[in-house]
């Protein structure tokens, strides 16, 4: 260390940090120049309802993506680490478009503290109660077995949802869904093969796989609960009825669990308090630390751009 | 007001290469969707992302803007469109040949997705992916995810060479 060059480099860094120009990096947004984001809400559809629904589907993906990213540098093999990071990236991509759409519909304004893109405002400057994700998305992923159980449930459910959302009257939801179907089918395939391999593996891997599935199970019931916003938008031909998705998840589990030698858990559901859950901003204690990890940097440097 | 496809603009945009697979142009990859000139002289180029989270998208937009500005277009707008979604079927025959020449196995044609629930196959029949080095069909998957979002890693049992495969979506 030392020497004139490094001194001046540090000097330059210190100077930029003092001034308004010393900004670095979050994302380049989808807001500017994305053909579909600017489309008006479909005829007869409440703008706030549509924005809220976009936030629900965005937060399901954003929070899950942040959780999956925790595996980076911790996965059992390099190949699985790359897989988990890629899956997290797919979900982040889905979230970014949906957040931008919600922002275009006005959802970012209450949280705006600076010149950020809508998607960044919504990702980094909302507090826990404003997040609309299902509790499954924020749940601790535990060991690799539990992560695969989580992914089998999550991707099967979201795939069933997105397969139907392709027919949405909202052009952005339909476009996101059309793309997401292929990505989620790939994720489900990946998870299903691991669940069978670990469940049908050694005594030890079987025990941990079953424990992982047991651990995820209490969060499954909430996936099929219908929020009033969803109910209104189902009526309007924009949203998917979550209650419709149960049969498809059941069919996947009926297909995967027997060859894996796993039993369907019987455990009480969690996640709903007096009928309200993640869709209403009522979360488990797991969400706070996830948001702290995701948001602290952006909040410390709210002017940052790249 | 946007006019119909501007061939001169398209030709410039079509030469920009993919940041992650530079043997392919954006036209080869099938992500270039439109090139137009507005009445006010603004050039509007439309691209579509390969995957929702494709990190190369911002690079593509920046490269397109610079290449068109270098070609004398002062005002350039790069728009992104998600619909219809990109699939590997959009990769041109020329693109497939260039991939193979670069040692990357091109994707097979998959055709449109059937409507309704996507079936899950626990033990899917292995697609035959020929080794781009020696041509042998005797290859195996090493990892379903590769160094970029759109590739998987494979190995040839005949010549033992590892290679990337642009996986079908």
Automatic annotation (TrEMBL), chain B:
This is 1,2-phenylacetyl-CoA epoxidase, subunit D. Its EC number is 1.14.13.149. It is an enzyme of class 1 (oxidoreductase). GO terms for molecular function: phenylacetyl-CoA 1,2-epoxidase activity. InterPro entries: Fe-S_Maturation_MIP18 (IPR052339), FSCA_dom_sf (IPR034904), MIP18-like (IPR002744), PaaD-like (IPR011883), Zn_ribbon_PaaD (IPR056572). NCBIfam families: PA_CoA_Oxy4 (TIGR02159). Gene3D superfamilies: Fe-S cluster assembly (FSCA). Residues 8-71 form the MIP18 family-like domain. Keywords: Oxidoreductase. It holds the Pfam family FeS_assembly_P. It comes from the Bacteria. Residues 120-167 form the PaaD zinc beta ribbon domain.
């Amino acid at each position: 260390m030392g020497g004139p060059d490094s001194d001046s480099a540090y000097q330059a860094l210190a100077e930029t940090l003092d001034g308004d120009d010393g900004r670095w990096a979050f994302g380049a947004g989808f807001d500017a120049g994305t053909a579909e984001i600017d489309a008006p809400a479909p005829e007869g559809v409440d703008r706030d309802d549509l924005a809220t629904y976009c936030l629900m589907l965005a937060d399901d993906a954003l929070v899950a993506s942040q959780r999956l990213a925790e595996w980076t540098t911790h996965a059992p093999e390099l190949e699985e680490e790359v897989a988990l990071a890629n899956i997290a990236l797919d979900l982040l991509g889905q979230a970014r478009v949906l957040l931008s759409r919600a922002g275009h519909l006005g959802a970012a304004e209450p949280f705006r503290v600076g010149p950020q893109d809508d998607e960044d405002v919504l990702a980094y400057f909302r507090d826990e109660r404003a997040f609309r994700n299902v509790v499954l998305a924020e749940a601790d992923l535990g060991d690799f077995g539990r992560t695969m159980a989580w992914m089998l449930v999550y991707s099967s459910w979201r795939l069933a949802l997105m397969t139907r959302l392709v027919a949405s009257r909202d052009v952005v939801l339909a476009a996101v869904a059309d793309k997401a179907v292929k990505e989620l089918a790939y994720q489900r395939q990946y998870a299903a093969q691991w669940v069978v391999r670990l469940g049908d593996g050694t005594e030890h891997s079987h025990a941990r796989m079953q424990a992982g599935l047991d651990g995820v199970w209490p969060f499954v019931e909430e996936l099929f609960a219908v929020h009033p916003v969803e109910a209104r938008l189902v009526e309007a031909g924009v949203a998917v009825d979550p209650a419709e998705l149960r049969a498809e998840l059941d069919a996947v589990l009926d297909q995967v669990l027997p060859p894996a030698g796993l039993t369907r858990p019987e455990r009480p559901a969690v996640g709903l308090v007096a009928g309200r859950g993640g869709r209403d901003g009522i979360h488990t204690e797991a969400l706070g630390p996830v948001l702290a990890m995701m948001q602290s940097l952006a909040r410390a440097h709210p002017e940052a751009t790249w | 007001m946007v006019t119909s496809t501007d061939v001169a603009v398209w030709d410039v945009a079509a030469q920009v290469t993919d940041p992650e697979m530079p043997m392919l142009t954006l036209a080869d990859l099938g992500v270039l969707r439109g090139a137009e000139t507005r009445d006010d002289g603004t050039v509007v180029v439309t691209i579509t992302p390969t995957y929702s989270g494709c990190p190369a998208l911002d690079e593509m937009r920046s490269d397109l803007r610079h290449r068109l500005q270098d070609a004398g277009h002062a005002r350039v707008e790069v728009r992104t469109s998600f619909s219809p979604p990109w699939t590997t079927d959009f990769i041109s025959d020329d693109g497939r040949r260039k991939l193979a020449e670069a040692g990357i196995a091109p994707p097979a044609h998959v055709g449109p997705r059937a409507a309704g629930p996507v079936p899950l196959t626990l033990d899917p029949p292995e697609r035959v992916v020929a080794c781009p080095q020696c041509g042998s069909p005797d290859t195996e998957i090493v990892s379903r995810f590769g160094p970029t979002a759109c590739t998987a890693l494979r190995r040839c049992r005949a010549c033992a060479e590892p290679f990337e495969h642009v996986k079908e979506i």
